[in-house]
Amino acid sequence: MEVRAYAVEVVDEDEPRYRIGAVAAMVQLHPQTIRYYESIGLITPRRPRGRTRLYSERDVARLRRIVELTRLGVNLAGVEIILRLQEQIEALQAEVERLRAMLAASVPRDPEEHPGP
Asked: What is a GO molecular function of this protein (predicted)?
């Protein structure tokens, strides 16, 4: 029996890595459309080398979500609201998980350890 080991690449979702042309092909948008989305604040690429826009995996996922919403008939103002609400929901979910973990760490597991009234 042969056992093979494979390296797993851990990808930082926020690392700027793609130029606008590659992103345009990935999300099937014209580069000018992506620039327009940047100008109205829907997407914010990094510019680590001066004027060159670089997009992260998170940026690409956000653009895909924008494309999905606009194809469903949502206008860009609606897209902005939906994206903002989704970000707020994600932040609240993370906070709930953090509080649950804190609560679980502070509550004794054994009922004999902390008898009721």
From this structure: DNA binding
Dist. CA 48–CA 117, nearest whole Å: 61
Neighbours of 68 (CB within 10 A): 12
Segment 84-112, tens digit of pLDDT = 999 999 999 999 999 999 999 998 766 56
* The dihedral formed by the CA atoms of 56, 60, 63 and 69, expressed in degrees to the nearest 10: -140
The CATH class that applies to domain 20-106 reads: mainly alpha
Q: pTM for the whole thing?
A: 0.75
Are the beta carbons of 59 and 23 closer than 8 angstroms? Answer: yes
Euclidean distance between CA atoms 39 and 57, whole angstroms: 20
Tokens of 54: 């670089």
